[in-house]
Amino acid sequence: MASSTRAYLVVLLIMAFYAGTQILSKVAFNRGIDTFAFSFYRIAIATIVLIPVALVLERKKAPPLSSKVAFKIFLHALYGITAPINLFSLGLKLSNSTPISALFNLIPVTTFVLAFLFRMETLNLKRIHGFLKATGVLLCFTGVVVLAFYSGPELKPINHHHLNLYHAKTSNIPRSSSNSKIRWAFGVLLMILATTCWSFWQVMQGPLLQEYPSKLLNATLQSIFATFQSLIVTLILQRNFSKWKLGLDITLLAAIYVGIFASALVQYLQIWVIQKRGPVFLAMNIPITLVITFSISWTFLGEIVHLGSIIGAILMIGGLYNVLLGKSREQKAMKQQNQEIELEKPLEYTEATVPVAENRV
For this UniProt entry, which segments traverse the membrane (predicted)? Predict the structure, then answer.
């Protein structure tokens, strides 16, 4: 199998794992499990999976870990794992899986905005690539506003004999009442905060990996710290231990699935894809998650989808591709400029040496 084909299959698998995470997490929350407890289980299961793998593969070549670097890893775990996963879970509970999946398209765009603020990216509005990136950010912002504040007519599920998983303890709440609109908008806001945390984490991973270059140990240590952080958060915010209970049902399956596949395996697969095809290739396939989530939720699980969610998702996907296209054109322009500089060097050398040769004659 060709390398490009494998990359496409792996990225499709990654997006399918993400879609499954959003769907199963929503089902678990509707079954009554607390979002903070579920987040703790998710991170803890990922840690249990990562520790033996890291010990086997990295034990003999692990770089030394200073207290300063350990503290930085602790902070990265706090804002890059603990905070966004808990925000994501609560936001998903307050809304639905389809709009939350649409908001995932914000991650590359938010990453670009943060990188620009930290002067790691440029934005030249006089060039076409700068204009594309700026309009992409604007489209994403418009999509978020539409998603949060405009519902529109409902799109009824085409399959009326859907699996009755979404409606065990809570149902799809119509967005017509003022309370449900506030609840929905708050859920979207929480997801935006989660994507911002994830984006900031991505931006800051580069400097951290320079200090502690082992990707696997880095991820494992962050997961260990996040497990204890999430445990403390859950103990503080949810003292009713009956809400912590995982029954022998879909909630247990969801926790195991999300912990193993979305929090552990996906990390390795993403690193593999980025190494093979680059981060842009991974980012441009994020909308696949939305397609899979929408198809399953709307068709089989009976999730009520509003027109506003579809319009907002289209705007955000358009914004995502605008930013990616602008970034691609910028890279091509820089590459061409570097090639022109390289071509000019021999000419300068020839012009400088010809007079010398003539003088010698």
Answer: 7-24, 36-57, 69-88, 100-118, 130-150, 184-204, 216-238, 250-269, 281-301, 307-325
Give the tokens for residue 343.
């071509």
**pLDDT (tens digit per residue) in 61-114:** 888 889 999 999 999 999 989 999 999 999 888 887 777 778 877 887 887 788
Token pair of 126, please?
């006089």
Spatial separation of the C-alpha atoms in residues 286 and 161, rounded to whole Å:
30
Q: What is the DSSP letter of 242?
A: G
CA distance 95 to 148: 10
Task: List, in order, residues 6 or more apart from 37 with CB less than 8 Å away.
Answer: 234, 238, 243, 244
Structure tokens, 199: 């984006």
pLDDT digits (tens, 9 = 90+) for 219-263: 889 999 999 999 999 999 988 888 888 877 888 888 899 988 887
**What number of other Cβ atoms are within 10 A of residue 105's Cβ?**
28
User: Percent helix, strand and coil across the chain, each rounded to 5?
Assistant: 80, 0, 20
Q: Which two tokens stand for residue 56?
A: 């086997």
**Sign of CA pseudo-dihedral 146, 150, 152, 154:** positive
- Measure the CA–CA gap between 105 and 319, rounded to whole angstroms: 9
CA distance 146 to 310: 9
